[in-house]
Amino acid sequence: MSLAQVMRFISLPILTMMARAFTSEFNLLAHTEPEWKGAALQYREIVDFLNRSRISYAISADPVVSRPRVLQFRDLSTDPTAYPDYFVDGCWRQRMGYVGVRDYASYKKMWVLDQWRYFAHIMIMCISSRKAGKDAMGHDLAATMVGLSLNRGYNFSRYVFKALNDQINTAERFRFLLYPRFVQLLIDDALPNLPATWERLQVKRVDKRVFAQFLKPDSVEPNPEHTALFGHLINEAYVAPDD
Ligand SMILES: *[C@@H]1O[C@H](CO)[C@@H](O)[C@H](O)[C@H]1NC(C)=O
Ligand SMILES: *[C@@H]1O[C@H](CO)[C@@H](O)[C@H](O)[C@H]1NC(C)=O
């Protein structure tokens, strides 16, 4: 029996309802082409960077509109899968203006400002493997921001596949539909002729209101520092120092 035949046996409304209830609220589509006016103007550098970065495809591929495509991150075989803790933490504090304490190896986006906060938000909403919590990111995701800023390699595929693998191996009651967009891209790639006979989940986008929200002064203690973007974020030709 083919998958398409199996799908016909399962009640569509029930399946769709279940899928909605268990689908991650993350792995959203990012803004790569915002209208450059109002608050969005202040984020121009980081949005431009994200649009030309190696995660650009991953944050903008919409499997409902453009299928089938491959999920790809332009990883190189020499890319590391992790960076030392002191290196990530040093970069966050010295270059990104991070002031927060680190509890359980998580970084909170409220402790960086300006374009950094938007950058962190996009990483959490589009790339993270979280089920809940839109304010914090783990060490691995914090490391990817360092790698992207310095134009250093990082094995993004591993980040995604490790999370999917952990999800498959976790107890049933903890499971949810992780990475709905990425999984759809993988399915479309592996099974290009699968008939789309059931209702597709709506692909969600990052809310445009964040552009204005992040500009509002907030009263967190201690106060994060304003630091300009640097390295590869503002210079396409930037090469990471060896050290
Ligand atoms: C994003 O990149 C594409 C090419 O990859 C380009 O056509 C488009 O103009 C860029 N958008 C912005 C907002 O820079
Ligand atoms: C990324 O890491 C995974 C797991 O360690 C490995 O199998 C894969 O080959 C790596 N990707 C690249 C392009 O090196």
TrEMBL record:
Top-rank taxon: Eukaryota
Protein name (database record): Uncharacterized protein
Organism of this sequence: Smallanthus sonchifolius
